[in-house]
From TrEMBL:
It comes from the Eukaryota. PANTHER family: DNA HELICASE RECQ FAMILY MEMBER, RECQ-LIKE DNA HELICASE BLM. It comes from Amphimedon queenslandica. Pfam families: DEAD. The keyword Nucleus applies. InterPro entries: DEAD/DEAH_box_helicase_dom, Helicase_ATP-bd, P-loop_NTPase. GO terms for molecular function: 3'-5' DNA helicase activity; ATP binding; DNA binding; four-way junction helicase activity. Residues 28-206 form the Helicase ATP-binding domain. Gene3D superfamilies: P-loop containing nucleotide triphosphate hydrolases (3.40.50.300). One of its GO terms (biological process) is double-strand break repair via homologous recombination. This is Helicase ATP-binding domain-containing protein.
Length: 318
């Protein structure tokens, strides 16, 4: 059976023209063997591919059709981006929630016409429509996995900020006994691992991961004693290096600080705030920009623009 399981994983990866990494294969294989799985892999490793492949893997492995995976995710913008990505790859993915106004999309989820359902913790915990969906005979038959993406949020947000995260373990009582849970995160200390396992009621989960070493990322904490001097140093380097300036994110605690730093940088940079200099101050030419929340437009524009330096707060909400 072990060889057949590996053959199935290889066949599904060929279907989607993807070469899976060792840890991705290990996570899928462990899940196929009836384990709860905790995936702790760095950003950019491809964690989402692990659960996105599960419907096709189970269909082929069990000789069935219509397997469904529910993925609980914290941000609407993240769900929308993942849905678009996997739809493009040929995986039937839909997100549901207050922001989903397409009735056909919601109907396709309720009638089991999709492979991958993205939903927020609040909707799966508090919306009777989706709780009843999980209890329906259709989902009792077709649901093969409950996935919690960005699982560290269970610990960091579950007590005060987004209480539904703290009660996600209750969902386990609604699932069929053969449905396992997969938790994924890039942020997993030993304390976080223990807290998430306890709150999600994970049964001796298989831990998949390694200690990330992102040599291209540097963290630095600087006291901002004098705003002008702080910004002048940055502006001087930006003028000199332009597009060679290392990609930088400045996190601040308050929206007012975010605005103050951005406008002081803009004053010090003058025409060099754009590349090339003296170009119109349009977003596509800006070397420096400011964001105050992780909206869909913000996330998409950050990936497409010149931005060498971004000033933002850490108060990012759904």
């Amino acid at each position: 059976m072990a060889d057949r399981a590996m053959d199935v994983i290889s066949e599904v990866s060929r279907r989607y023209n993807v070469v899976l990494k060792d840890k991705q294969v290990e996570a899928i294989y462990s899940f196929m063997n009836g384990c709860d799985v905790f995936v702790a892999l760095p950003t950019g490793y491809g964690k989402s591919l692990i659960y996105a492949f599960l419907p096709s893997v189970f269909d082929l492995y069990k000789g069935q059709e219509g397997s469904i995976v529910i993925c609980i995710s914290p941000l609407v913008s993240l769900m929308m981006d993942q849905k678009s990505k996997f739809t493009h790859q040929g995986i039937k993915a839909v997100f549901v929630g207050e922001e989903q106004t397409d009735e056909d999309a919601i109907r396709s989820v309720l009638t089991g016409k999709v492979q991958l359902v993205y939903i927020s913790p609040e909707n799966i915990m508090c919306n009777p429509l989706f709780r009843n969906m999980i209890l329906s005979p259709l989902y009792k038959e077709k649901l093969v996995a409950l996935v919690v993406d960005e699982a560290h949020c269970v610990k960091t947000w579950g007590d005060k900020f987004r209480l539904a995260y703290g009660h996600l373990g209750d969902i386990r009582s609604l699932l069929s006994s053969n449905v396992n849970i997969m938790a994924l995160t890039a942020t997993a200390t030993n304390e976080t691992y223990k807290a998430v396992c306890k709150r999600l009621s994970l049964n001796t989960p298989k831990l998949i991961g390694f200690q990330p070493n992102r040599s291209n990322i540097v963290y630095e904490v600087k006291p901002m004693i004098d705003l002008d001097n702080f910004c002048q140093d940055i502006a001087r380097e930006l003028k000199s290096l332009a597009l060679e300036y290392p990609k930088t994110v400045i996190f601040v605690q308050r929206y007012s600080d975010c605005s103050a730093i951005y406008h002081t940088l803009r004053k010090n940079l003058g025409p060099h705030i754009t590349f090339p200099p003296y170009y119109p101050i349009w977003q596509e030419y800006l070397l420096v920009d400011m964001y105050t929340r992780a909206s869909t437009i913000t996330l998409r524009s950050m990936s497409k623009k010149l931005d060498e330096l971004v000033v933002t707060t850490n108060c990012q909400k759904q």
